[in-house]
Amino acid sequence: MDMLLMGLCMTFVGVAVTAMAFVAATRPRWSTPAVQPELPAAKVAPARFFSDHVAASIPLQPLVPIEVLLQQIENHVRLEQAAAESFVAFPTQALLHSKTTSPFVN
User: Fold this and answer.
1) Structure-model confidence comparison of residues 11 and 79, the more confident one
2) Does residue 53 register a pLDDT over 70?
3) How far apart (Å, rounded) are the C-alpha atoms in residues 101 and 57?
4) How far apart are CA 50 and CA 58, in angstroms?
5) Which structural domain, as residue segments, surrounds residue 98?
């Protein structure tokens, strides 16, 4: 019986401390200064993020034709496939950590 009462008292103390911490964390802050200094009115610039204005420096035509880019990607894939096939045929530690010859890799 004594242990049950001790457990209830400890539970009550824990709930009380938790409730006080919750109230302290959620109460609004009313500590505003009594006199606020006047700030000079600044002219607000119009937002241009969703502007319809298109920058003149953006070229309308792509610099590189799409066929050239597709050819470079195909060459890259071929090089990677050849490297994978050579590793599968003869796996070594040196081949696993060797650099690729592809121009797309830094």
Assistant:
1) 11
2) no
3) 35
4) 17
5) 63-105
pLDDT of residue 93: 84
Residue 88 lies in a domain: yes
Domain count, the chain: 1
Per-residue DSSP letters for the chain?
-HHHHHHHHHHHHHHHHHHHHHHHHHSPP----SSPPPPPPPPPPPP-TT-SPPPTTS-SS-SS-HHHHHHHHHHHHHHHHHHHHHHHHS--HHHHTPPP--TT--
How far is 88 from 95, CA to CA, in rounded Å? 10
Whether 31 has a pLDDT exceeding 70, the answer reads no
